[in-house]
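Researcher: Here's the sequence for the chain we discussed earlier.
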Amino acid sequence: MRKTLIAVSTALLLALVSAPAQEKGREGGREAAPAHPIPSRGPAKTKVRQGAPAPAARPAEGGARVAPHVEAGNKWVGHESGPNDPRYHVAQPFAHGRFTGGFGKGHVWRLAGGTPQRFWFNNFYWDVWPADYDDCADWLWNSDQIVIYQDPDHVGLYLAYNVRLGTYVHVEYLGA
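Model: Thanks. This is the structure I predict for it:
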């Protein structure tokens, strides 16, 4: 009888301790669905004619700039300027090393603080490339989830995709 009582008490205690851990990352007991689908891959390398000027920022109907975003079918909108765009030239690519924390859909990171000039998650430090400051004005630097992708066109930069907004910006890795 005593062994049965100990076994039942232990099982109840384990259930009580593990219940809050199961709720982590959930809202109302259910998985929190991302506001926008997470792209399964990053953008394809841009094919730009030699000597062609970089496209201007995409204006919306009212004339305001549209933030770079991902549309259905993994279509990366706003990443058409190619490798010769002077706005994304990095004088010393990978000066702080290369990010090794994981890329793509299987690696969702929660921002832990900062500003566009310096932000972090899981002891990895980053900054938004200055040309993209306007595109992250509505990011929540202490709670948004992001996914990092390699940038196929701009050596030394990565792309940070905001899951809540469906937008992305160019970022530079500052180290761990």
